[in-house]
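Key idea: predict the complex, not the pieces.
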Amino acid sequence: MTPTGFLSQLLQLVIALLLAPLLLGWVNQCRGWLQNKSAPPLLLPYRTIRKLFHKDAVIAENASPIFRTMPYIIFGAMALAAAIVPSLATDLPFAQAADAIALVGLFALARVFIALAAMDIGTAFGSMGARREMFVGFLAEPALLMVLFTASLISGSTSLPTIVDTLAHREIAIYPSLAFAGVAFTMVSLAENARIPIDNPATHLELTMIHEAMILEYSARHLALIEWASALKLFNYSCIGLALFLPFGIAQGSDDWLAILGATPVLVAKLAVGGFALALIETFSAKVRIFRAPEFLGTAFLLAVLGMLVNLLLGS
Amino acid sequence: MLFVLGLPIAGALVLAAIGHRTQAAAVNVAVCFATLLAAALLTVRVISEGPMLVLDRLFFVDSFNVFLVALTAFVGFTTAIFSSPYMRIEHEHGRLTAGRLRLYHSMFQLFNFTMLLALLTNNMGILWVAMEAATLTTVLLVSLYRTPASLEAAWKYFILCGVGIAQALFGTILLYFAAEKLLGAGGGALLWTELNGVKNQLEPTVLSLAFVFLLVGYGTKVGLVPLHNWLPDAHAEGPTPVSAVLSGLLLNVALYAVVRCKVLVDGSLNTSFAKGLMMGFGLLSVVVAAFLLSRQKDIKRLFAYSSIEHMGIITFAFGMGGPIANFAGLLHMTVHSLTKSAIFFAVGHAAQKTGTQLMDDIRGLITTRPAIGWGLILGTLAILGMPPFGVFASEFLILTTAIHDQPWATPLLLLALGVAFAAVFSKVQPMVFGETTAKRLPYRPAMAPVFVHLAIVLMLGLWIPPVLADWYRQAAKLIG
Amino acid sequence: MAHTIAGLPLWAQLINLLAAVLLLLAFAMLAQRRVLSLINLFAAQGLALACSTAIVAFATAQPHLYWSAGLTLVLKVALLPWLLHHLIRKLDVRWDVEGLINIPTTMLIGIVLVVFSFNLAVPISQLANTVTRSTLGIATASVMLSFLMMITRRKAIPQVIGFLSMENGLFFAATSATYGMPMVVELGIALDVLVGMLILGVFFFQIREQFDSLDLKHLEKLKEESHL
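Result:
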């Protein structure tokens, strides 16, 4: 573990933590532009998190330790994921752990804890949200794994840095199977991040909440951490998507300072475009009924399978 | 030869304009007669001088397809004669408007054109285009009466034949794919004469796959079971002349397409793959159709299933191969066309007289209009294979060859023929004899075509002119 | 199946990509519920087909394929979708597409068909001598998917669109396996398709007149016993 390696790892983590709320603000800004509304200010998520940290936490009397510790657990999981996903460079110290399937496991861990905490208090909203979250997660996970398998077929390994190396640093070629996998990945990340068309992040209507329903009971620093963790989850999914499908610009190895510094604006630019695309999708779609979610995610799964078959056929 | 193709097109255009007038039917007949003359001249030339390539190898005429051309022109002519009073009666009865008569007449000629094009072309791709065009021209004709049942029949016809023809397109693409490597890209690779020349060098796997698709595709139009679903409906719901040409002519042309492909595949594969497939489908069609005959209540559907059965017999004969079976197949094609169209003529007029197509409601035809009654009963006997009609001769030849080459098939064939005989005869007999419910028709029905056809069939059963026999033998040799 | 992507020239990679897009669109059509989106997807398929024909024309220096691409563009991207939109407006049809089996099951069957057609196409594509031969499997698969769409839909217009997109798949098969069919054949096929569509248009009006609806369950009454 060289000093530059350690520093660049730290840099990547810090940038992730700082940029995640900005990404959220950017998506809301784009939505406002597209829907001809005046959007909330770009830095509002930062102010919200800061405001929440200054408040006093109110916790129910019968809350168990799970309730209290869940925000820290999921924040930790998301931060760890942010450190692992190669958003800036490929050969970081944590890279050995950067297996795509391990990442899926991290996300699953976060999901389990948030569902447990939601059911902990015993309110109706909490258990409803938990049930729906597990339902969507149960359907989304195979699809996500399939997408990762398809993407890994080209480079022959599920380790994200290896995938990035194969796609970005060898000669440029067009891989049709990645087209399928890309569409499938977009659908899955919409579902997992509680965006339209699966869930509406801005709603508080009883029948339509999934993610919001689970965190209704939280306040102050716990809520701040949870909001930050959600923003980090969106950031992580975006970075995974970029690493799998648009890895150009990610520095190779962790020693080349200049390349890493150059990779940062590239990342910001890619995320900006990605955020705009997300806002576009959200504007053009309507939220589907929860009963249609299996169809949506089933389509994603089958598209990923199709991508794998195309890969086997075309050799790409 | 260009007249053979040009006349129907000209006729179609003329009739599109004036088809609703009273002279339209006469013009129709005249155009068909002229086409027949041209076809006869062409036939004489090909028989005396041998096969010919016309227009830079675009068209190819040999004894196999010129015989079908002559048959098509002849049956087209007699159908035009039949349809003249028939359609007038329909018009009187109010089942058709003037606009639809125009459509009918022009599409009739256009249909003739597409069939003749399919027969005469040398290019397998154009063959496909012509087959699809033949379906398209008749779709609107099947739904001419605009009843719910006819719309359903026309829809099924369109969709099922469309899907089938798409399979045939895929088969044609595969054929082109195999041919391109030997003959180079461009139109030359799809010419049948060229393909025939290099057929033993074509890739066997590709050709066998292509043949499967071509058989399924064109076989849908022949009415082979299990792809036959459209046939009974289309024949029952369309106007009778349309049923006559569909049964008598279109099925033949589709089978011609299949046989041309079979010749290529046999040359390439040197196994009995194509033969086996054709025999299998043919036998299946015969047996299934025979057993379904007894459940029919509508007379046109009954004879439509009979068409399926006979096309199955012909397919089986061509599948067996060899000079006698091919000869018998060609003979059967001829007599079946003539007899089936004669039957449909008689049935059409019978239905008009009684106002219904249900067999239970038609009775005693022989008392009111002896011509129709006798035509029907004689036609039925002919199609069921009674001697001395021609159908008996060809079926006998096929059976004897089958006993010799494929003994396992013979009991099935005999069983099917027997069942068919019982079913059809038991239904037709009460229709012809018995108490009558028929009414008078405003115009004299044209029964001459019926008897002309039956007379030819009778003659072919008793004595085949040597010229004709030679001609058949030449064609049979080509099929291999 | 064992060649790698990096060895192919750029235009062949583009064709591969367009083939994948074609398959994606065929799959998307299976999963669609609304008729308007079906028509737009069909137009997009036509566009992909025209682009790939034009690329093949450019790369193999066969000018007659430019005509073919142009014909596809005019017919399948402009004329036919316009005709279908016009029909829909005239017939005032805006329903959701009902299928015989639900959408996830349809898509599962679709995947099975895709696997089957890939397997079927592999031995044939090895015999071809074009660079784009591996896309033959994709073309076959999209033909099968369109066929599946035809038989699982109950309304008339989606069946027709399935039929037309089957035609698209066959065309792509021709382009990928043999660098296109002879011009005269392609013209004939285009003519057939156009005439077929016109006839269908007339037909829809007739059906609508009779049944007041384009639901095909009205067109299933002709059977042996019930024919009265």
